[in-house]
Amino acid sequence: MGEKIIGFHAIEEGLKRAAAGSVLYLVRGMGSNTQTLERQAQLSGKVIVKKIAKVEMDRMVDHADHRGAVLDLVIPVKGSGARIPAISVKEFCASLKEDDSALVLVLDEITDPQNLGAILRSADQFSVSLVIIPERRSAQANTTVVKVSSGAAHYVPLATVTNMNREIEYLKGQGFWVYGAAMNGQAVYKTVFPKRTVLVMGNEGKGIGQLTQKLCDHLVTIPMTGHIDSLNVSVATGILLYEVRRQQATK
After folding, report:
1. Which residues pair with 54 in a beta bridge?
2. How far apart are CA 52 and CA 36, in angstroms?
3. Residue 78's pLDDT is what?
4. Tell me, what's the pLDDT at 188?
5. CA-to-CA distance for 208 and 119, rounded, in angstroms?
6. Partner of 121 for a Cys bridge, out of 149, 205, 217, 222, CB 3.0 to 4.6 A?
């Protein structure tokens, strides 16, 4: 069983972490566009390079925009690190030392893979400790998400859970304070974030679910003065992550 990755930057990152037996498929006759990837695969000493016809690659990724390259990662045994790093919430908490700062990002039914990919890219840039997504009614970390994240998805610990609210309650029991993003929240610049923070971002249309919002200790918002009353969820997530990490860095 493998994990197929498309997108030049996502493949570059995937090659850095590829396990032995992974295959880089290139379309025959593509020229210099894919030579860099071919060299990187050859230098790794682990990745096999195979050149195939474009029609074969189209079928391989269901006619997605592959640009002449597909990386088929071998999914190794747990801990070898080639795929998106999966972890449970309890395992994550057990790894924390008593005085460790941490930033956990909970995504409440983010359904657009483009948004999830962009959010994971921001999560990598701001060193998010853990991202939590629900198993149902949510985009999952698939080929599109990895591509949109430019490969950053491979560096962000991800917990896919069956009961998100139960995991939030568990985090609260481990000393985390929970902040939900909502239009009626306190201005983010007036909010003081502790060293163990959970940030909850809601669905693109309906926001955070009612039960989840009740679990939040505080609600926060990004004050805006433009003509449109809301930001795309991936943009809003990046702004809020920056502010939390900015505050944590000064403590």
Report:
1. none
2. 17
3. 42
4. 93
5. 16
6. 149
Which residue from 45, 50, 43 is spatially nearest to 19, judged by alpha carbons?
Answer: 45
Which of 188-208 are b and which e, b meaning 16 or more Cβ less than 10 Å from the residue's Cβ? Answer: beebebeebbbbbbbbeeebb
Cα separation of 2 and 73, whole Å?
Answer: 5
Which positions ≥6 away from 198 have C-beta within 8 Å?
Answer: 104, 105, 106, 168, 171, 172, 176, 177, 178, 179
pLDDT of residue 200: 96
Which pair of tokens denotes residue 15? 């090659």
Instruction: Please give the domain boundaries of the chain with CATH numbers for all domains.
Output: 2-74 (3.30.1330.30), 89-249 (3.40.1280.10)
Q: Looking at the chain, how many residues does it have?
A: 251
pLDDT at residue 85 in the model: 61
Query: Side chain identity at 224, as an amino acid letter?
Result: M
Tokens of 143: 């080929």
Q: Which amino acid is at 74?
A: V
Q: Which residues of the chain have pLDDT under 70?
A: 1-2, 31-32, 75-85, 142-144, 147-148, 150, 225-230, 251
Residue 7 half-sphere exposure toward CB, CA atoms < 13 A: 19
pTM of the model: 0.69
State the pairing for strand pair 48-52/23-27: parallel
Give the strand pairing for 102-107 and 130-134. parallel
